[in-house]
Design goal:
Layout lengths: L1 E10 L4 E3 H5 L6 H8 L3 E3 L6 H16 L8 E5 L10 H9 L5 E5 L5 H14 L5 E9 L9 H4 L4 E11 L5 E6 L7 E4 L16 E4 L1 H23 L8 E4 L4 H10 L11 H4 L6 H11 L8 E8 L3 E8 L1
Parallel strand pairs: 4-5, 4-6, 11-12
Antiparallel strand pairs: 1-7, 2-3, 6-7, 8-13, 9-10, 12-13
The structure holds oxa(dethia)-CoA.
Oxa(dethia)-CoA binds next to helix 2, helix 6 and helix 7.
Length: 320
Amino acid sequence: MIGKICGTGSYVPPHIMDNDDLSRIVDTNDAWIRERTGIARRHIIEDETTSYMAGQAALRAVEQSGIDPKEIELILVATSSSETVFPCAACEVQKMIGAVNAAGFDMNAACTGFVLAFNTAQAYISAGLYRTILVIGADSMSNMVDWTDRGTCILFGDGAGAAILQAEEGEPCIMAAHSDGIKGPALTGLSRHRKGREPGVEDKESYIHMDGQGVFKFAVRKVPEIVEEVLEKAGMEIDDIDYFILHQANRRIIEAVAKRLHTDISRFPMNLEEYANTSAATVPILLDEMNRNNKFSKGQKLILSGFGAGLTWAACLFEW
Ligand code: UT7
């Protein structure tokens, strides 16, 4: 059994912050950000929440799929920035879309989260446990960045993307995932510090710490490796793949991955110019954009790959 994508959706907040807006907050400029990252602007929440964005993306996926939300048996939300730890975002989405028969829970593997949730959904489907699963990646990175740190705040944006999988006869997806907790300090995000519990401990806002070059090198090495791993498991060659949908962190990372794989960059679609790095949401937002622009046709082979904090990285090879 395989989970075929029968609907996709995405949502980004309407408020846009471009590179010039950022240059009024930190010592940076449009030329530096474009050249080093490929990012021109990002969408930032005002009143919206992570769960709200997840629910909006889900509604669009449900509408496109034509299914009744009551058919959804499981909701998985990949997020590391939900405003509430509980109830989980998946239960909030369930309420918003009326998926009254679904179970739901959240998964946190930062920017790798959507691909891991997608793989989890595929495993449930191939084990015969569920037939219809809604998978979402949603993050509000603007709540987590330190807006005085030009090394990180320029990179991120907010958004959500969703895909609905339905069981069909067919070969299961080819999946791989890895973690390296020892390298975890290269990219950390703190949650709000406990308030009032210990005398003298101040309420500390969430923020991200990153060794940018360390994460860059990790991604450029590990993404080609995991792509080759799933290709080998599938008995396929690089030229058998139509599109590589990678986590949208930095244009230079994606270009370096394509180069290391000796593959044409045209098979690595990108949209980070518009949205920046929306963490778990980058892969499903890009999937949805391509789907709605009719870029996919039946039988095409796709590889999804995410990488990020943990450190974590994952991939999935499947047929559209
Ligand atoms: O989901 C995973 C999330 N994380 C990532 O994907 C991060 C991966 N890493 C990166 O994308 C890149 O390392 C960055 C974009 C974060 C940084 O690019 P870089 O080419 O590695 O720059 P750098 O840190 O080596 O800095 C080069 C120079 C430094 O100045 P000096 O020391 O050469 O004078 C920085 O102080 O650029 C300076 N700089 C900036 N200048 C203007 C750093 N950030 C900025 C900035 N604007 N925003």
